[in-house]
Amino acid sequence: MRFCTNHPYTLDYDVSELVDDKIIKIVVNIGFRIQPKTELYFEKIINDLIENEELNLHLKNNGSTKYNPTIDFKFIIMEKYLSVENEFALKEGLILKSYFFLKRFGQKDEDAFGLDRNDVAIEHIPLVYEPVKVLSLKKRV
User: Fold this and answer.
1) What's this model's pTM, rounded to 2 decimal places?
2) Separation of alpha carbons 126 and 102, rounded Å
3) Which mean pLDDT values do the consecutive 10-residue runs of the chain (141 residues) have?
4) CA distances (Å), 110 to each of 28, 37, 81, in order?
5) DSSP-H helix ranges across 57-136
6) Are strands 75-82 and 120-127 parallel, antiparallel or unpaired?
């Protein structure tokens, strides 16, 4: 089920279980007038699922120690970069290199999602758009 997020003050979520008590999918619908605070929303959703006994993981609402009262989360942001294993025509290479150059000046994903930097791990994924077809590598005799 997909909720309409055309309304500026929409803030709701939908949970679906993909694999029993192993993988859950959470879709948070945030209207364009609401500042995203993904980490706070995620913590509230997990606490609600535990309280309603919908999530049967070995988690407790009170965290692991008295000094850490909340559950620890780690958010992984997958960031693509242009791999050296590509072989472009001049036009394609220029467009893709320009895109990745301009991307450096844009808003970071952790800021856009409202995440604390210490709870974020960035996974770098190579983008292979046009792999090299022919390698002219020969063994020296």
Assistant:
1) 0.68
2) 17
3) 68 87 84 86 86 70 61 84 84 88 90 87 88 84 83
4) 16, 10, 17
5) 90-103, 109-112
6) parallel
